[in-house]
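Bench notes, afternoon.
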Amino acid sequence: MDFVATLWNAGAFMLGYLLPFLFVLTIVVFVHELGHFLVARWCGVDVKVFSIGFGRELFGFNDKHGTRWRFALVPLGGYVKFSGDADAASAGTDSAEIETMTAQQRERSFPAQSIGERAAIVAAGPIANFLLAIFIFAASVYVFGKPVLTPRVDQVVAGSAAERAGLLSGDLVVSIDGRPIGSFADMQRAISTRPNETLSMVVDRAGAMVTLPVTPALVEQSTPVGKQRIGVLGVQASRQASDWTTQQFGLVESAKLGVTETWFVVERTYDYLAKLVSGRESVDQLSGPIRIAQVSGLVASNGGLLGLLNLAAILSVSIGLMNLFPVPMLDGGHLMFYALEALRGRPLSERAQEIGFKLGLGLVLMLMLFVTWNDLVHVRSLL
């Protein structure tokens, strides 16, 4: 019976957590690498390998251009290897390979391209991640519409920031700090991101416009990705069915909403990092593969396919931003080297680049170890 129970638990883990996680991660990684791949092809660069995952190849095929498309054993990332690259991370030039190339092959190698072309190829990965997020958010509201709850106050919690500000039951929130509020979700976003800040809130009170100074209270909440410090007013949303509507949008409006939603994720990410540096946020929210898998499972069970796609959009923005950090080994590190090459009129020495890539690798590995430890501590706290 113990053996059967073990098999059952393993199967439940696979279906409940691992498969949703791999689904989300594979989409994000594939689109990121596809960005590199397509711009490289457009620039006339030969692509040797397009890999989803690392390590031993599980299966793959060669296309008519000679690119090896492969799925590898460890599906926690991917890479595109260009002609002339020393390795999958483009950490230098393979001089031995370059020497054996014909003049035509050398022209189609990655190191032979101009600074602008190399920068475009490298930047295409993160840009593709942002475009994926915009597409998913836009397609979601275009196909399914956007559920909107009128930003009407149903009840005010006693002793809350809302009560101190003078909010009353029945108030309809019109704007916060001059920003129009069209839904209860808009109000939550405006409030949650600015704890302990005094905001100017305009409400419609029985037809009269009333301006109130509100200061959201700072509250620490436990979530699947860790503890989050957010601003809270202390109001309950309207429970009237008539206050719920589903807005439909055309293609242009959906695209605008996709851009707006993607930019919101970017803003929240940078805001978190700034507060992390200043000590106003906790490192508890830094998550690795284990916690992302946990969140993927929860989203799959509660939100289904649409929920997973929206999670993929959020993760895609995060991956795009992370890759733009000026750390060697990441896309941002390559762009930093190209910027220095453009300023100096010549590339950094191979020795300097080698040292930079080693330092970058060390930083990336330390971050991976840290977030994995964070994940294990978080999972242990749930047991």
